[in-house]
């Protein structure tokens, strides 16, 4: 039975990824900072899912979690989001520095730390899948820059672990509904414009992302590595 770790697995995209892996009889570990949110997800998903409360920006906590989890076949670095949504408008240069560091911590460091901590216990045939964002291509302040950094890091990671038979890829979503990503800040007008920007004329769903993550973790995807796979309804094309 494969062991799958999904960071930020208590809500949104991560929760659906966890539920889909659980449905194919994997041992699934979900992480996040809010124990009550994780417990609710574990209760609702059922199967072999368990929760570990951790702040993925903290190296010591992450190292302890990795020791406790042990061998892992699939790591899904999903934790993150645009931390600017939880901040006041910056007024001083110090505020701007804090805001940029928070988005880099939330999106880049969570992935770098968990991957580095778990890699020694990942056998040949494993997969590291990290959730990026269309914001890396379109530009979106410190959040877009952090997701672009994640994509660049992934290329080097893939190169380093390729001869161990481990793949590393990014799944890069466009607008995905039914998550906590936008907090309460997404207006109807903005939602409509995001939907209209997609060639499919619909919002993406956590299930769209989970299906691509599962494919990248499947035997059919072993020659795919170092890539960024866009799942955005054509809002931004790679050609
Ligand atoms: N929704 C979209 O339109 C969209 C588009 C492009 C990319 N994405 C990306 O998709 C990923 C999943 O986001 P989502 O849309 O599903 O939003 P979400 O519902 O807010 O999920 C983010 C999850 O990450 C966890 N998390 C955040 N910081 C963490 C930390 N320091 N340590 C541990 N866990 C942490 C959160 O749990 P706690 O708060 O309890 O820690 C939460 O469960 C993110 O990387 C996001 O940037 C989303």
From TrEMBL:
Family from the record: Belongs to the short-chain dehydrogenases/reductases (SDR) family.
This protein's UniProt keywords: Oxidoreductase
Enzyme class name: oxidoreductase
Keyword Oxidoreductase: yes
Domain named Ketoreductase: residues: 2-179
Keyword Ion transport recorded: no
Gene Ontology molecular function terms on file: oxidoreductase activity
Organism (species): Mycolicibacterium nivoides
Protein name, UniProt field: SDR family NAD(P)-dependent oxidoreductase
CDD domains on file: SDR_c (cd05233)
UniProt EC number: 1.1.1.-
Transmembrane segments: none
SMART domains: PKS_KR
Pfam families with a match to the protein in the record: adh_short_C2
